[in-house]
Give the backbone structure.
Amino acid sequence: MSKGLKIGLGIVGVIVLFIFLLVSWATSKYNAFVGLNENVKSAWSQVENVYQRRADLVPNLVATVKGVANFEKETYTAVTEARAKVGQIKLSADQLSDPAAIQKFQQAQDGLGSALSRLLVVSENYPQLKANENFLQLQAQLEGTENRITVERQKYNTVATEYNTAIKRFPGVIIANFGGFREKEYFKAAAGSEQAPKVQF
């Protein structure tokens, strides 16, 4: 075998090895992004589950309040309408990269949370309601659900941060762009929540 042929085969071997390593690296990165994306989808499913739990509690809470207290009709009408808006807005895991969709979803959920808060504040004026066992149980379940919502949103933001960081790092960003991996939006605090509430006596 001639010296030139040996050099040529050596160069071809190095090129083949380089291509093999490059393809292996790209495949590994792509699969890592798929795994991170699935983690985001899983976390999103948990967020949806706890929001659904809250939505499921609302009719029972409203019915209990209506049955015990002769409430201002507008209070439970607002809760019912806010729940209906929440039910109309469906956000799939594929839409988590769309800031407008996330904002619309979050506004509807914040609207329901606000309406429920008003319902619970107004209920303080009715001692027989505060003594009602069903109402107390529903109120405790609702408070627990609100805590779960906070926890699941925080978990979602954590896995979304891991995913977003991974797809932006070089050289993985090249694979992310070719693979169609897009940045996921985060849950943000409600507008004005950075302001301390004013308490007047």
Q: What stands out?
A: The two ends are 98 Å apart (CA to CA).
